[in-house]
Structures are given as C-alpha cells and as structure tokens.
Amino acid sequence: MISPADFVQIPLDDWVNSFVRDFLVPNFRPAFRAMQVPITKVLEQIDTFFHWLPMLVFTVGLTLIADRTAGRGVALFSLVALIFIDMIGLWAETMTTLSMILTSVFFCAVIGIPLGIWTARSDRVLLVVRPILDIMQTIPSFVYLVPIVMLFGVGMVPGIIATIIFALPPIIRLTNLGIRNVRGDLIEAAEAFGSTRWQMLWEVQLPLALRTIMAGLNQTLMLALSMVVIAALIGAGGLGLTVYTGLGRLNVGAATTGGIGIVLLAIILDRITQSLGDKKGVQTPSLWQSLRSLFSASKADVGAQSGKPA
Predict the structure, then answer these.
(1) Which residues form the ABC transmembrane type-1 domain (predicted)?
(2) Are 239 and 261 in contact (CB under 8 A)?
(3) Which of 39, 86, 100, 135 is an S-S bond match for 91, by CB 3.0 to 4.6 Å?
(4) Residue 275: CB partners within 8 Å, gap ≥ 6?
(5) Range in 67-81, 120-134, 244-258, 280-294 the model is least confident about
(6) Model-level pTM greater than 0.85?
(7) How far apart are CA 41 and CA 43, in angstroms?
C-alpha cells in the first residue's frame, strides 16, 4: 500500500534538535539562567526556614493551622501524619519537598492569577492563551525535561521550573472562570454606583471569584505534588529522590516509604487548601450586603433631604 511517507518524510525530530541546540541554547541560555535567580532566592529562604524550624514547633503550628481552617479531624490527622513521617526518618526530605512545592505554587500564583485576570478581561488574550494551556496540560511531562536540562541545567531549581510549567494551567483557567462567572446583575449594580474598572476587579469580581480561584490553587498544588518524583529525575531532592533511588536500586521498602510520605503530605495540604475555599475557611466580604447598605444610605439621604423645610 502506498502511504504519504513514501513520498515525503518530515524530519521533525531534527528540526526540534536544531532549534533547541543551535538557536535556543547558544542565544538564550544566559537569559534562562538569569530566570533562576528569583526562584533560587525564594527556595533558599523557605528551605532554610523549614530546616531550621524544630520538628515539634512545625508540627504544632501546622496542626493549629489545620484546626483553624479544616477542623479537628484534619488537625488530628495532620498531627499523627507528621509524627509518623518523623518516625520513619523522612523529616528532612519532607521539608525539602514542602519547600519545593510551596516555591512552585508561589510562582504559579504570581504568574497564573494575573494572567487569569487578563484572560477574563480580554477575549483576544483568551483566544491566544487557551491553546497554550491545552498543550501544557496534554504534553507528557517527560517531553520538556530534556529542554529544561539543556537550558537550565540540573538540580532543584530546574525541577521547580518543570513543576511550574506542569502545574500552572489550572490556576489560570479557574481564575478566568471565576471572574467570568460573576453575576451580571451585581456587576451592573456596581457600575450604577460609579465603580471604576479597578474597583470592579478588586472589590467585586475577585472577592466573588475567590472560591473558584482557591480551587485552582488547590489543583495547582496537587499537580505540583504529582511532579515530585518526575522532578527527581533531573536532580530535585526530597521525597521524590527517595522514591526514585528506591526504584533504581530495586529497594521496594525505600520507594514505598517515600511514596507514603508524599501521600500523607498531599492529604494534609489538600485538606487545608480545600477548606480555604469554603465559606468557613475564607470570609469574603458580601457584595450584596454592601450594596444593600449603600441603597439604605441613599434612601436615608433622600428622606432627610425631603424632610427639610422649604
């Protein structure tokens, strides 16, 4: 049977290799290396703090945060899970993993929330960004590990960059979705009171979209945790390195222990961040109450003016 490949073959792999090796690496590697500086600074501060903090202080603090945000059940689970992680000898690795995750989520939020706001305010921007997000969410994470190593080298920071690329789309999508789903009558009421575009964004749209944005942050956090083991392939440490080393040496016990540590950490962070999006976790200002008080004040002013003697 005749196929198109009998007449024309497209050397896509050669084109990609030529683009990365002959164009990106020689021309842009210094710029990509400079991009590591802010990530390195944030990671060093968080990692140093977590490793300096005593285990008991961290455990009590996170337990209190869990109790405050997610309830006593999650707080008790967090307490038992953290003590268990320390008893199996993975405390230092857990702190390293937590530092990497928080750094990744921080930069995802810094990049993703403004970009999500921009896409919500401009259909043209959304038209450009949406296919990029589709590619980022569907392309296998192993595919962009090689270009990342060539451009950024190996180590924890390149692992964090790979994690940011993998975990960024949900927070952009859900920030856009949350702002676009704000009720039209509330926006019209705010416009009737003379709200500017920035006032509309900060005082109306973002507070009402906060739950959806927090859901996006939660998904970003979970995706970042799922990249822990894959990031270990390019030199990232922590629990992912424990799992990867165990698999490489056929040490089932070490791999299982590291996997259990990742699961426990994921459950704790998931429950806490999930609760932050609930009504009990985040006390957002009620726009309806604000508008009602404004209407009441306006009626009171009108009544006072009408009651004045001519």
Answers:
(1) 94-273
(2) yes
(3) 86
(4) 69, 70, 71, 74, 281
(5) 280-294
(6) no
(7) 6
> What 3 state SS string does 33-88 have?
HHHHHHHHHHHHHHHHHHHHCCHHHHHHHHHHHHHHHHCHHHHHHHHHHHHHHHHC
DSSP tag of 278: S
> Are the CB atoms for 169 and 136 separated by under 8 Å?
yes
Could you tell me which residues come within 8 angstroms of residue 45 by beta carbon, excluding any fewer than 6 positions away?
Answer: none
User: How many Cα atoms occupy the beta-carbon half-sphere of 28 within 13 Å?
Assistant: 13
DSSP state for residue 74 in the 8-state scheme: H
State pLDDT tens for residues 16-59.
Answer: 888 888 888 888 888 888 888 999 999 999 999 999 999 999 99
Query: Where do we find the tokens 């942050």?
Result: 217
Show me where the domains of the chain are located: 15-57+91-276
What is the rounded CA–CA span in Å between residue 81 and residue 29? 42
Distance CA 97, CA 259 (A): 12
